[in-house]
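Data deposition worksheet. Section B asks for the primary sequence of the deposited chain exactly as it was used as input, without tags or linkers unless they were present during the calculation. Section C holds the resulting structure in C-alpha cell form. Section D is free text for depositor observations; keep each observation to a single sentence. Incomplete worksheets are returned to the depositor.
Section A, Depositor: J.P.
Section B:
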Amino acid sequence: MKKKAFLIITAFLITNLIISQNHISQSISPYLLSQEWAAKWIALPDAPANGYGVYLFRKSIDLKTVPTTFVVHVSADNRYKLYVNETLASIGPARGDMFYWNYETIDLAPYLIAGRNIIAAKVWNEAGYKPEAQISWRTGFIMQGDTAGEGMVNTGSSWKCIRDEGYQPLSSSDIIGYYVAGPGEFIDMRKSIKGWQKSGFNDASWKNASSLRGGSPKGLRDAPGWMLVPSGIPQMERSVQRLQSTREVTGISVPDSFPATATTLTIPQKMKATILLDNGFLTNAYTTLKFSQGRDAAISLKYAEALYASASSAGKMAGKGNRNEVKGKSFLGRKDSLISDGTSQQNFTSLYWRTYRYILLTVETQEDPLIIEDIYGTFTGYPFSLNADFRSEKEDLRKILEIGWRTARLCALETYMDCPYYEQLQYIGDTRIQALVSLYNSGDDRLVRNALNQMDHSRIAEGLTLSRNPSSSPQIIPTFSLWYIGMLHDYWMYRPDSEFVKEKISGTRQILEYFEKYQQPDGSLKRVPYWNFTDWVVDRPEWMRGIAPIGKDGSSSVLDFQLLLAFQTAAELESKLGMEAYAQLYRGQAARIIRTIRHKYWDESKRMFADTPEKD
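Section C:
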C-alpha cells in the first residue's frame, strides 16, 4: 500500500498541555494597575510635541550588588529601544491605540552589574511620516519600577536627554503601489551622537527631561493622553540573519565570502560602487552596516522584495516576473541613506525593521576611501514555534509547508499584517485566516487574542468594527465586521477560553443590529453604507474596487451569503455562551436568508448561484 501524506497537528495537544500562555504575564504590582504611577512621561524641554525627531534619554544608577530581579514597565510614543549597559533589552511599545496604550514589562536584572549602571533609551517620533498602523499623541517616554526598590529608575527630571540632530526622515518616491509603512532614515554621522549608551559618556551638556504627566493606567481617570495597559504579547524574536550572496557589483570587486561572513571591503576615494545583495528569501530584519573612514562618503541601502522587469509608466504596475532573476531589472524600494563622518567603527542599525530579499548597497566616496566591515540583518517576528509536523514521500509538499509558514511568520509581528513591506496593517479579513494558521501550526494564541481585542476596541457608534486596527485613519468595510464574528467563533472552537469570548458577545449583537437596518423584507441586504469590499478580482469590471456585483434592487448574493454565515455562527455563540433568545432570533434570520438566496440567485439551468437576481 502506498504511503500517504499525513499531517500531525500537535497544536490540538498543545491546547491542553503547554499553551495557556495567553494568561501568563510577568508580575505587575497591583497598585500600578489602579493608581497613577510615580513615574512621569518625559520629553526634551521645548521640543515640538508632534514633530519628527529622534531623542536620547539616559540615567545612571548605582548598585552595591546585582539584584535577583529588577522589573520595570516601559512605554513611549511613537517607539523606543531600551539599552542597559549598552545591551539592547527591549523594543516597543507593541502597537495599540490611545485607549489601550501598551507598555512592556522587563526584568533588567540580567543586564545589571555591581556599581554604576547606565539605563538608556532611544525614542523616535516619525510624526506625519509615521506608518499608517502607528497611532500617536505626542513624543514621550516613561519607565516605572515595579516596586519601591526599582523606583530609582522612574522617569522624571533626573533623566538627561537630547535630540540626535543627525536623523531626518527619507521618503521613498519610487515605490509602486499603496505604501504606508513609514519613511526611511537619513543619518548624517557627522552630526549624530556616538557612544551615548556607554558609562563613560559625558552628558553634562544634555538637558534634564521635562515631565509631561504621570503615567495613568486605563480606567483611572478621564484625561487626554495615553491610557496604559500591559502588553498581552511577548517581545519579538531577534536573531542574526546573514545575507547569502552578492548578485551584481559595479565599481569594485567583492570576495566570494561577502556578505555571508564578515568581510572587509575597501571602496577607494572618488569612487561610486554598487553591490546587489541577496538574502535568498524574503525577511523582516533590522539592517546593520558597520564601516570606517570615508569622510563625507554617501551610503545608501535600498530594500526590495524583488526587482522589476521594467519601470512603471503612466501609473501602471511593472511586472516582477521570476523573483530569482535580477539581470536587466530595475530596483525600486524603500531607502536609508548615510553620510560617513570619517571615524572608525561607525555603526548603522535601522530604527525599525525592514522587509527585503534584496538590498542594493551604494557607496560614493569623496577624498577618503571607505571601509565596509560588515553588513547583516537581525530577523524579527512574533516568537511562534512550529509545533505541527508534516511528513510525506513528496518533497514538494514539505516545501509548500515551509514556504507557507515563512509567509505566516513574516505577516505576524506585534500585530498580524496583511503584508510587511507595503502596509503592515491588521485587516480582519486577512487576520482571520492568519489566526487559524497560527493556532493550527503553533498553538500559541496570544497574538490571536490581541487581534480580537484590537478589533473589538475599534467598534464605532454605529456598531461596526473598523476594517483594520491599529490604524491612524479609520477605514470601514462592513463585511469585515461579519468576519470578526467568524474569527471570534474560531477562537471559541479551538481554545478553552469561553469567558474571553463571552465578554465580546455584546459586540457581535451590535454588528448584526447594524446589518438588520439594511435588510429588505426578504432578508437580503440592500445598499449597505461604506465600502462593501469582498476581495480583489482581476479583469472583471463588475467587481469595481473589490465590491461584488450589485443587482438592480441593490442586493448581492455574495453579501447575503456572508451575512448568512455571520447569523449562523452568532447563533451558535449565543446558544452556548449568550442568550437563547438571541440564538433563536439569529436562526430565524438565517432561515429567511437561506430561502431568499435559493429563490433569488439559484440558476437551475447552470446549477449555480448567480451574483445578482438578474442572473447575468
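Section D:
The first strand starts at residue 6 and ends at 8.
The longest helix spans residues 580-601.
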